[in-house]
Write a structure and sequence with these properties.
single chain; about 400 residues; mainly beta; 2 domains; 9-stranded mixed sheet; 7-stranded mixed sheet; 5 helices; 26 strands; elongated; disordered N terminus
Length: about 400
């Protein structure tokens, strides 16, 4: 019994020392207090350490059928279907993430567009619930960050479009008008509702041919490449609710929440119809995480939330990180925040991004933090969320 007591004391002693070692210096504390929301800040000596994990439960929420077209990410032939999947009546979320990769025998301008065909027996009615469409660009970070921001802000459209049985229409008229140059990314993020079964295709063609016209003449669907791109198919999860199992207490030092790492939070799976295989969405891009956690201040401190590019040194593709979240109110107003907000990306430690600062309750009682997170397109994962105790005085 005495030995057990000593072990318990040793454990809490180590935890206390760890928390003390991770306490911010007065200078860094002031950086967090004086910085604007979304700003890139520097926290030398703080990032990349072992923090207390925020344990959580994940619940699959009801949501739309989720489709993503990102394999092959680079469409290397002048004309082909890169994605084709059947959808059922109801809501559909579609993420288009494809690049004009044609360079043989020469680099040429292309059109990358998404179409839906009515495979039912009655007229299909389509209404857009959320809409996000960016001009093609080689600035993938900008597209990924602004694409999420537009998606979160979208209020949909009351317009109802009709498609006769056997016919097809373009899902996004902007994609029909875009000129996609070599190596430019086409990024579209949509949520719509239909009342007939259909078939969604993403294809590349010439600038003069409409998507529905090209669909009639293209017979080949490109095989998945698997060397690049997150994946393609219809996936069984579109929305998660993440509920923290432990209460964050500022007296215990920093705590870290990690989702979309492929280990603790595995990649969602689905079905890819051209091969008939189970598909894996490496990155969970386009999946929405509704996060809820409790925190309290036993020592009178507030709680700052920061993120950083933990993968910066892995390879050349991970040199920057940019994200967008819908954040609860704290010191700053709640709402959509682009991360970072004062430049395109954050690079590597000691750089971090300040997301929000939460003041302590006057009586030290528990408070709830809620926010929406989705893995940011073009960025390497995970993007850790670190809750840092901060002296508000």
């Amino acid at each position: 019994m005495k030995k057990r007591s000593l072990l318990i004391l040793a454990f809490f002693g180590c935890a206390s020392l760890l928390a003390k070692a991770q306490t911010l210096s007065p200078e860094l504390n002031q950086v967090l207090l004086k910085s604007k929301q979304g700003a890139v800040i520097e926290l030398p000596g703080f990032l990349g350490k072992q923090y207390a994990p925020v344990e959580y439960q994940k619940i699959v929420l009801p949501g739309p059928q989720y489709l993503i077209s990102d394999d092959p990410e680079y469409i290397r032939v002048p004309e082909a279907v890169a994605f084709r999947e059947a959808v059922q009546p109801g809501s559909v979320r579609l993420y288009v993430y494809n690049v004009n990769g044609v360079k043989e025998p020469q680099k040429i301008d292309r059109k990358i567009t998404a179409v839906i065909k009515n495979t039912g027996t009655s007229v299909m009615h389509l209404r857009m619930l959320k809409y996000s469409s960016q001009p093609p660009s080689t600035n993938y970070f900008k597209i990924g960050k602004e694409g999420l921001a537009d998606y979160f802000a979208s209020k949909g459209d009351s317009k109802i479009r009709t498609i006769k049985p056997g016919e097809a229409i373009t899902i996004d008229e902007k994609l029909e008008k875009n000129v996609v140059k070599y190596d430019e990314l086409v990024h579209g993020f949509y949520e719509f509702v239909i009342d007939q079964p259909g078939e969604v295709s993403v294809l590349q063609t010439d600038l003069k041919t409409s998507g529905p016209q090209a669909l009639k003449r293209i017979t080949n669907v490109l095989p998945p490449k698997s060397q690049s791109g997150a994946g393609r198919g219809v996936f069984g999860v579109s929305n998660y609710q993440v509920i923290a199992s432990n209460v964050i207490d500022t007296k215990n030092g920093p705590a870290e929440l990690i989702v979309a790492d492929g280990v603790k939070d595995p990649w969602v799976t689905g079905h890819e119809s051209t091969t008939g295989h189970i598909a894996r969405l490496a990155g969970n891009y386009g999946v929405m995480y509704e996060v809820e956690l409790k925190w309290k201040s036993s020592d009178g401190k507030g709680l700052a939330l920061v993120t950083w590019n933990s993968r910066a040194d892995d390879n050349k593709w991970c040199g920057g990180m940019a994200a967008t979240m819908v954040m609860d109110k704290g010191k700053f107003e709640g709402g959509i925040v682009q991360l970072p907000s004062d430049r395109l990306t954050t690079k590597r430690a000691p750089e971090a991004i300040l997301i929000q600062v939460f003041p302590p309750a006057a009586n030290g009682e528990e408070q709830t933090i809620r926010f929406t997170y989705s893995p940011p397109g073009a960025s390497c994962l995970p993007t850790p969320l670190i809750f840092v105790p901060v002296d508000m005085k």
